[in-house]
Specification:
alpha+beta; Aldehyde Oxidoreductase, domain 4; five-stranded mixed sheet; 32 strands; 25% strand; Aldehyde Oxidoreductase, domain 3; globular; homodimer; 774 residues
């Protein structure tokens, strides 16, 4: 097989750049009805309240309004949730956060829907709420889910290794700190949306902007008492997801609408304000950390407690916290760990999956203490990280032996040798007037895949079409991260087709539960690794098959004498060839299809801890990164400008360098926003940053030109040696920028984001800038 | 995987024993038209003649006769033939043997067809013919195919190894002999038949008693200018085939009839007399042999010339001769060989494939000379064979190194130790009055598969049906040899299903070019080996798939923790299980299908000889056997009674002992008929044994209770270690019985069959019986 030397342009690049790509609503029929949810909490300033009634009379009088449905109209359990099913599709008795819906309106048009929603009235009696996890855990606190036997504690869990208490007691050096990280809004370009139609044969045919079309069927089926196998879901390219479309958003509401639309198609599309009000957020977390070390900086023990605010519903709260706990000690050798986690219900907006999935929240804490330790021991902070960095064969902080690839040390070495690091002193000294400069860094990691207990599997289908082209049935949604393009590239390489010469040689079908095979969600940095592996198996089977069929057609005795070449099978010895177009005509449909599957390996020595976790613990594979930030702080305003940002990433072997860099850069950009300016504010559970004029995300002008370095490692179990790189990049900016800010100002900020107000307050302490780093 | 200890009854046994099984004509719709060929040669006593005209007027006047078609109505090349296409579907200019058809009649019923055929008249001018290969090769002999550039020599070929001429010149002992073997009629229970219909979408839908449904499409397509992919052929169980249904019999005629039937279904079924007149025969062969050896019996050299009478058309004549030549030296180490072959056109009936495919003809010659050598050297004939028997790693007479399994020596050892051999002297001495007794033996072998140049491949499809049962898409016809049952058994074992407890756990679909994948013909002892291997691959993929899918459904991390059990996937650790019925419902159709393929390995050191062969030379895999016969000869009538017959067979590992024995016994039975009584007679190309009252085959009363011994070897490339055993059994009886006859009478008969007339003539030479054997 000949591998092409330079990859062709990303398969979806042209269509996306020119606007030709079609997203969910581009597929919606023009005659769609409009459906929308009535979420009265925000208007009534009620985050927790008893629903006494919904008055639909005025709404039903609005021309074009067809139906107003309430909880009583929901046929099934009326409960959604990926693992814990605790979130009503429509709330009939209680609203638990300001975005909870109590009615669903079905109207002829978007305008009549808007007027119908405006005409609805709900009678809601306020209930006392809980808006802070510590308060929520107090005895006699109002209960968000009175039937939950843990009260407001959704889950308490512990990971322990060795004897952290004793080790800390005896540790020569101990550093401590408390940290808090905020909620974060996904703010994807395309808000939650979809359309659906109940077909005459009883199949509910849906097209949704979703990260998990296969799982959605079960969630809808459970909530609405439908046969999941009679629900078909198509998932075209998403206009962003980041975790916020992992789990039901519009799905159940839209399905309910379609069930009541007499066979007509219905669409639902959330306005930006509804997306902010009702969409899932990154968990706000409070972290209390104690870290002990030898005098030479060798880490000894960590004790910490992490408190995750999951808001009104569980969503993936337990799993997000689990991942945070598994990463709580950073990518370091720590012999003794005691990691406590509490995931708490409040009446705040619902928290759920978000790129970095629980880990983005812990990295500012462990990296904050690494800097504190370096300062206390007068050690170079990079050297301290390098000294403790996990190596292959080490045990991580959960007690899992790292049999997978680990190249963190190489990431740190890249930083150490980089001019941005080696010239930092002179650069800092050259700061302009009223400006302080600082250079910070962070080492981070991120688990890949579902972890134990979930069978992290993908099933790839590959067809040689009747026309002799290869068609990849992608079954993991592409939310923009480029996995679909990676699949086309992997298939082209394995099948020795040239996308550069013939972009149509490998085509992609986006997820469709009817035509593709279940392959899990687009999440957890797993898509390219898991589906890629499955696809390579399908491709290998296809190659073997085509050579064998060509052998038969060409009267060649041995398949080794044949080669799969672009568009044909060749018999080099005789110069004969059989075009794929001809070969395809020979083969029956069943013989033009290959299915490959891959089940992600799991840790063979799962430690005897973390028993509270139902699923997802522990992980075996991790991607690693080391980030470096150079910032300028405006002494007059507290504004932080990121001058340079460098991300060195170990994501295994690099398949397509530009896609790889895009993930590193996108993750860093989102992490910079998270670190510096995305202050998602609530008061009494009510969102204060209700639209994009107040809920800020960085624009291109707010960001430096992020440099991506690839540590081209090799993960033996990965497709062509790769690992997932979608998440790790988000975990570095917050600690690296806090580190840089400390370098610039001498003050370590432990509450995020690092807003100008907080920076200014720190500057006002008037301590001279630290010059710790020589 | 648990292998069941005792195989269940053969899957098709009950249906066949009770008459419930359905054969081709059992599927024919009642409203079928009848089609039949007009073959005037026999009635006109013309085997070679010029067709001057066909008068259809009287026939067309017969009520119910719809069409009379002649060569002018054939739309394509009008030529059929598997490799050489030289046989017209309907003869327009010349008939080359007495069974050649010149017209095709289409009628409403069998009766109107019969009357229509009787009313047809042909004007045929006799041409001088050739009825003996030696005469046919003479200069100025009438040419059967004047356009063939070799004249009547269809193919002359040579296999050479070492220097046979020099070796024979120097050999201390040389024996010589000339032999002749006769034509043989397949005489299957079910004569050639089928039915067909041209569907409105242009697909020609055929059901035919055929050994090669996939290849038939191309043969029909070529002859009639049809797209082979628009021909669908189904091949239910055959009521016998033996090679006689490998290649076109009714196919092209039936297709032509269907094309002219205005969409109505048409059937064609040959009467027994038509089957004898027009069907393919075993090649009559003349053999001239010279064998040289050391004084200790070590073989040194063979020189021989084989002349195959292929009759009026090539059919598989070249390939049949090729196989005979490859086996010409017997299963022995012979350092020097010179093997000449001539395949000759005559105006005799068409010769073609027949169980033993060219090899049955050479075994009486090489084994005759082995006996002659033993007698000359006063050696025990069994010891002489044992001494020279091929062993693994030896070079065979074509120069191919035997890297495949070889257990001939073990077969001979079985015979040597058997009471039928050890007590032979006493038994012979106890002959009743007017009766002579003799004991003979033979060592034989038979190549498996197509040999080089044809890509001997099978593609097996296996489906887990929606109902949770396994369905094997058998794509090699079962003509009674039991391959279909073997496939069910193989699949059941590999999938750990119990056919004994649930016969429906693995079901079989018989060949259908629309639903199954091409897997070659049912011939060459290849079906169970090749398709079995492909099926095992499909089963292994299916097992892996089902365990993986069950892992996903059961939330199990590793497929090794699961087991495929009868009707379910088990998780022994937790005691949970997932019934296949439930699992099947989870899976899409594409994911319930596995396709496995197998390409038979070929010799890696093909010798630089046999260059005249287009395809099929050399072979790498052989089955071996040693046969022992005890006979009584009636001195008054010359009648030979076979008292005991013992067949020790090396067919690799035995999968199902009763199927294995049935093949050994059936082969021996057919071989005994061939050896003793099946004298297929022609005179001037006209068949003298035109029906079953003169064309005799043995009945159960003519046969002993044939004992089968299995040398349970192991062929590493075989499915579960097996090799094909369909053919080797036919090659032993002729030499073993001639050997026994010589033992009884002192006379070696070299012309077969060993009819009472020939035996009596030998006895009349009044030589006392030989007592060579101590």
């Amino acid at each position: 097989m000949h591998l092409r030397s330079s990859p062709p342009p990303r398969a979806d690049a042209l269509a996306k750049a020119t606007g030709a790509e079609r997203y969910v609503l581009d597929f919606a029929p023009a005659e769609c009805l409009s459906a929308g949810a009535y979420r009265p909490g925000a208007a009534l300033n009620i985050a927790h309240g008893r629903v006494l009634g919904v008055d639909a009379s005025a709404a039903l009088a609005v021309p074009g309004v067809l139906r107003v449905l309430t909880a009583a109209d929901v046929p099934g359990t009326n409960l959604q949730g990926i693992v814990h099913k605790d979130q009503p599709v429509l709330c009939g008795e209680v609203i638990r956060h300001a975005g909870d819906p109590v009615a669903l309106v079905l109207a002829e048009s978007a305008e009549s829907l808007r007027r119908g929603l405006a005409a609805l009235r709900a009678d809601i009696e306020p209930l006392p709420g809980v808006f802070d996890p510590e308060a929520a855990l107090k005895k006699d606190a109002p209960l968000v889910h009175p039937q939950h036997k843990g009260g407001n504690l959704l889950l308490g869990a512990r990971i322990e290794k060795g004897d952290a208490r004793a080790a800390l007691k005896n540790a020569p050096v101990v550093v401590r700190g408390e940290f808090s990280t905020p909620m974060q809004e996904h703010a994807f370009l395309e808000t939650q949306c979809g359309f659906a139609r109940l077909l005459p044969d009883g199949v509910l045919d849906m097209t949704v902007s979703t990260q998990a079309p296969f799982r959605d069927r079960f969630e809808i089926g459970h909530a609405l008492a439908l046969n999941p196998f009679k629900i078909r879901i198509r998932a075209p390219y998403l206009g962003g997801g980041f975790g916020g479309k992992d789990g039901a958003t519009v799905q159940c509401l839209l399905a309910l609408a379609a069930l009541n639309a007499a066979g007509r198609p219905v669409r639902m599309s959330w306005e930006r304000e509804e997306s902010i009000l009702a969409g899932y957020k990154r968990h706000a977390v409070h972290l209390r950390y104690t870290l002990g070390a030898e005098r030479d900086g060798t880490l000894l023990a960590l004790s910490c407690r992490l408190t995750y605010d999951t808001g009104a519903y569980a969503h993936l709260g337990c799993e997000v916290m689990e991942l945070g706990m598994e990463h709580a000690a950073g990518p370091y050798r720590v012999p003794h760990t005691h990691i406590e986690g509490r995931c708490v219900y409040t009446n705040n907006p619902i928290a759920g999956a978000f790129r970095g999935f629980g880990v983005a929240q812990v990295s500012p804490a462990f990296e904050g203490l690494m800097d504190a330790l370096a300062a206390k021991l007068c050690l170079d902070p990079l050297e301290l990280r390098r000294k403790n960095a996990l190596l292959p064969g080490d045990e991580n902080c959960s007690g899992v032996t790292l049999t997978s690839s680990v190249h963190l040390a190489e990431c740190l070495d890249e930083l150490a040798a980089h001019p941005l690091w080696t010239t930092r002193q002179a650069w800092r000294a050259a700061a302009p007037r009223f400006t302080r400069r600082g250079v910070g860094l962070a080492a981070v990691f991120n688990g890949m895949g579902y972890g134990r207990g979930l069978a992290d599997m993908a099933i790839a289908k590959l067809e040689l079409t009747e026309a002799g082209e290869f068609l990849v049935y992608n079954s993991v949604a592409d939310m923009g991260q480029g996995n679909a393009a990676a699949f086309a590239l992997l298939a082209a390489q394995e099948l020795n087709q040239s996308l550069a010469e013939n972009p149509g040689a490998v085509r992609l079908l986006q997820p469709d539960t009817e035509r593709c095979h279940p392959s899990g969600s687009s999440s957890a940095g797993r898509t390219t690794y898991t589906f890629g592996n499955a696809l390579l198996k399908a491709c290998a089977a296809m190659r073997e098959k085509l050579l064998a069929r060509a052998a038969m057609a060409l009267f060649v005795d041995e398949t080794q004498a044949l080669e799969l070449a672009p568009g044909a099978v060749l018999h080099p010895a005789s110069g004969r060839s059989l075009p794929l177009t001809a070969l395809a005509r020979f083969l029956k449909r069943d013989d033009r299809v290959c299915v490959g599957e891959f089940l992600m390996p799991v840790a063979q020595d799962p430690p005897d801890t973390g028993r509270a976790f139902q699923i997802g613990f522990p992980h075996l594979f991790f991607s690693y990164g080391a980030h470096l930030a150079r910032i300028e702080v405006d002494e007059l305003t507290g504004r932080v400008r990121v001058c340079d940002f460098l991300a060195a990433t170990d994501g295994g072997r690099v398949l397509d360098r530009s896609c790889f860099d895009q993930q590193a850069q996108g993750g860093a950009a989102q992490g910079i926003g998270y670190a510096l300016l995305e202050e998602f504010k609530t008061r009494g559970g009510l969102i204060q940053t209700a639209d994009l004029s107040t809920c800020l995300i960085p624009t291109a002008l707010d960001l430096p030109d992020i440099q991506s370095l690839a540590v081209d490692g090799h993960e033996p179990t990965g497709p062509r040696g790769l690992k997932g790189v979608g998440e790790v990049g988000l975990n570095g900016p917050a600690p690296a920028l806090a580190s840089a800010l400390e370098d610039a100002t001498g003050e370590r900020l432990r509450d995020f984001p690092l807003t100008p107000e907080r920076v200014l307050a720190a500057l006002n302490k008037r301590r001279p800038p630290s010059r710790r780093r020589a």
